[in-house]
Specification:
This protein is an alpha+beta fold. The chain is 28% helix and 34% strand. The protein contains 4 helices and 7 strands. It has helices at residues 14-17, 46-60, 92-104, 115-122; strands at 25-29, 34-41, 68-78, 82-91, 109-114, 131-134, 137-140. It has a 3-stranded antiparallel beta sheet. It has a two-stranded parallel sheet with strand order 1-5. Strands 6-7 form a two-stranded antiparallel ribbon.
Length: 141
């Protein structure tokens, strides 16, 4: 685990690490907790994209709509009025369980991202396939 001063410390569990963390925590979620989908939506309006993204994700998720948190990133505008997005959703109870040690230590994350995004950003330019270990499983992005 990397601390804000740049030093690294190994902990056996998140519960052991949580009390030692800085007040501002950034959490990189494991891929198994996230559903990612590419969407092509017929609008460029930001407010409409938010609602349409949620509606599209709700259609495909095996969870009730009130139990998900979702967001999107614009990949590119397509055509005259279309947008291509990368949408992500997470089941809130799974994240609550994952973050329980942080919550108990009063260190709730201020920023949440995908661990796979960190791996991709650290990969050399031109890399089209990356294999990495995440929570004792091999992941492919």
């Amino acid at each position: 685990m990397r601390r804000s001063d740049g030093s690294e410390t190994a902990f056996a569990t998140l519960a052991a690490a949580a009390p030692t963390l800085e007040p501002v925590v950034t959490l990189a979620l494991p891929a198994r907790e996230i559903m990612v989908e590419r969407l092509n939506l017929p609008t460029r309006d930001a407010a409409e994209l938010e609602g349409m993204t949620r509606l599209q994700l709700e259609k495909t998720l095996p969870f009730p709509a009130e139990e998900i948190t979702c967001g999107h990133s614009l990949v590119r505008e397509a055509g005259e009025n279309d947008s291509i997005l990368l949408a992500a959703a997470v089941h809130d109870p799974a994240i609550d369980a994952l973050c329980a040690p942080l919550s108990e230590a009063g260190r709730l994350p201020k920023v949440v991202s995908l661990y796979a995004s960190h791996v991709a950003a650290a990969s050399p330019p031109g890399t089209v396939l990356t294999l990495y270990r995440e929570q004792e499983q091999l992941m492919l992005i």
